Amino acid sequence: MIQYFWRVINVLEIKTEYREGILFVRLEGILVSNTVEFFQTELERWKEEGISNIVFNVMNLKKIDTVGIRSFFDSYQMIHDKDGRGLICGMNHHINHSLKSSRILNYIYEISDELNAIKVMKWSKGS
Hints:
127 residues
């Protein structure tokens, strides 16, 4: 008898780009309890670098759990402490309900895409 083993490795990929005073954070994969440590490590690095304006692009995020959502609250606190602004764009059907029911969007506001995020960030700073 031949047995087949299927192993799924949970992965979170974080791609960043700093442009016009804004850190664009593109999340791909899953943000759950066993991948959130990677996200938290990056969050600490951004804090040390003095990043205050962040746009989280979640278009390619396939899953988020309560631990992952908590990490967005942590990022909000970091942004708030630095008098910055946080936005989420690219909401998709995989995570839409989880984020909206968590109330995180009361703190880190939703915007349609990165281009509009730049406009909102510039407008809110009076540029």
